[in-house]
Specification:
It contains eight helices and ten strands. The protein has 202 residues and is an alpha/beta fold.
Amino acid sequence: MGMQFIKHRVNQIAQLRSVDKRWGVEIDLRADSRREGELVLQHDPWKQGDDFSIWLQEFSKRGINGPVVLNVKEDGLEDRIIELCKGAGVQNYFFLDTQLPTLVKRHFTKGETHFCARNSLFEPLDHCQKMAPLCDWVWVDFLRGRVPPEEEVTELQKSFRVCLVSPELVTGKFVHSAEFIKLGQKADAICTKDPDLWQSLL
């Protein structure tokens, strides 16, 4: 399939107009406090956002390939999210930051693996390897400036598809060492605010 670029935080329907059809997107989801059973795209608590069902319709209409990275900010929304994705014909997605009890339960009761393990300064390789039967993807984070060793990413690729977190999502600055760019060349996907710039680097 080749490298996939995932545009970070596409939480507004209007933002989909500037998403290249070859890219994926990362979004944040919460329950709509005003309408039972509905969802909104919103990173921060206590705020409203665009309607997820309408966002999905526009996503499908534009023919964007995905994947859609579903960063669910509240536990227990997964059934409704999957229902809406299926209704819109969106099949290429995975959940990020699912609470562990929910992830384990859904895997063992429904056989689901469209989840993401995490690899970071606080979530080492052996932790990820234990999650391998439950998750299709691993989210390789840049917390506290940690550049993961190349051999660690190679090891992760034996069990997962690897999504590398671009440093500007953590630091706010698009500063990339040659070492990090080399990792980008190995990864299956990169989540970034600027896919165009990453394409020029690779």
